[in-house]
Amino acid sequence: MTSMLKKLKQVTLRSLKSTGVSALVQDSRWRRQRLLILAYHGISMIDEHEWNGSQYISPETLRTRMQQLKRSQCAVLPLGEAVERLYRNDLPDRAVALTFDDGFADFYHRAFPIIGDFGFPVTLYLTTFYSYYNRPVFDVVCSYLLWRGRARTLIAKEFIGEDARVNLATNDAREAVLKKIRDFAAQQKLKAEEKDARAAALAAHLGVNYDELLKHRVIHNVTPAEARELSERGVDVQLHTHRHRTPLDRDLFQREIEDNRRCINEITGKDPAHFCYPSGVYARRFLPWLDEAGIKSATTCEVGFASRASHPLLLPRFLDNNTMAPIEFEAWLTGVSLALPRRTSPVRRLAGERA
């Protein structure tokens, strides 16, 4: 059924394009008053887009997207400029801003070389803890390892603290045991080094070559040196909390921002003022705290275009994914996608505290 609906949607979009409706929308005053903030998380170093196509795309798909941006004559703006012009009602036609969350090493190795070929400005929201402690991000790499070991049965006691044999063939089984792995690590209050040792043990148990993942920097963050180089080459490095978490306590929340800002300043020599909620998780209580911290904009994972009616600390974005057909991506660039009914995206968040 889902496949049939997707094909029907693509047929409808091609019809709207062939009849000139898409062109009318993209050149309309309505579109000119809106900013499309494109969101990305990871670009595959090996096969990550096959594991989680809602969060990772292949380098080939990213290049195709950049070609579409150029072909559609989109005005790709730096995020700060785009937000300022949005509220001044001074956006150019087909305004777009590019954002990447987390600061994974694949941005340095895969994404930025492609984006650089097109000369587009880009913002990298950087979680800094795993830049300094440069090992695989625990929660995320455990999810990836369980997928890589999906043909196996997990003897789980070492990893969840209870006797269990888990057939990893289904996504539901993997998600359930991943939660137990995370919870068990939290209960034991494992330090980052201990979490990494447990991830390595999980890889060995599932027959996955952990050293190979380390070699390819799979699910690593950029190092401080890489982040500095990216900044010097024009990448806009902005705030994403230090430990990839948003505590509901004001002091702890402010500490996340302050630690993140201090680290980014040490790395780049610049003072970041734009923020992205980790995993898209936000609460209204955060807004005055962000305002106190001098944050000019904050982006969510809510789907849509930003307009002058959008709260600057609750800006919507569109999360691109590897399963989206080119005609569907183009429909977001033009704005015609909003004319069609949409199902809630089954995005599998890579959530959880990172440190």
Features:
globular; alpha/beta; eight-stranded parallel β-sheet; 13% strand; 355 residues
What pattern of helices and strands is seen along the backbone?
Answer: HHHEEHEHEHEHEHHEHEHHHHEHEHEEH
Radius of gyration over C-alpha positions, nearest whole angstrom = 21 Å
What form results from the Cα inertia axes?
Answer: globular
The largest β sheet comes out as:
8 strands, parallel
Helix fraction by DSSP (H/I, runs of at least 4): 40-55%
Indicate the structural class: alpha/beta
Question: What's this entry about, in short?
Answer:
With 355 residues, the chain is of the alpha/beta class.
Description:
- The protein has 355 residues and is an alpha/beta fold.
- The chain has 17 helices and 12 strands.
- It has helices at 2-18, 21-26, 29-32, 48-51, 59-71, 79-87, 105-118, 129-132, 138-148, 157-160, 171-187, 192-205, 210-216, 224-232, 250-268, 286-292, 326-334, and strands spanning 36-40, 42-43, 56-57, 75-76, 95-100, 123-126, 153-155, 165-167, 236-239, 274-276, 297-303, 315-319.
- Strands 1, 4, 5, 6, 9, 10, 11 and 12 form an 8-stranded parallel β-sheet that branches.
- Helix 7 (105-118) links the parallel strand 5 (95-100) and strand 6.
- Helix 5 runs parallel beside helix 7 and helix 9 packs antiparallel against helix 11.
- It is globular.
- Residues 344-355 have low confidence and may be disordered.
